Amino acid sequence: MEQWKIESERVFREDALAKSRAVLKGALAEQLALIFKVFGLTQVMQGL
């Protein structure tokens, strides 16, 4: 039972980290898109 708890907690933490990274990447992409648009670099975003 204890081993299951340890393994489950590890899986939950990895999932939480993956979701957090995805949210941060999305927020960063939104901010960069605005900056690129202001400076006329929309082609750069299409390549990402």
Mean pLDDT: 87
How many DSSP-defined strands?
0
Number of helices: 2
Main sheet makeup: none
- The parts where pLDDT drops under 50 for at least 5 residues are none
- What pattern of helices and strands is seen along the backbone? HH
- Structural category is mainly alpha
Broad shape: rod-shaped
What percent of residues adopt helix (DSSP H or I)?
over 70%
Description:
The protein has one domain. Helices cover 88% and strands 0% of the residues. It contains 2 helices and no strands. The relative contact order is 0.08.
Notable characteristics:
48 residues; mainly alpha; 2 helices
Q: Could you give a short description of this structure?
A:
The chain has helices spanning 2-38, 42-46. The protein has 48 residues and is mostly helical.
How are the elements arranged and paired?
Layout: H1 2-38, H2 42-46
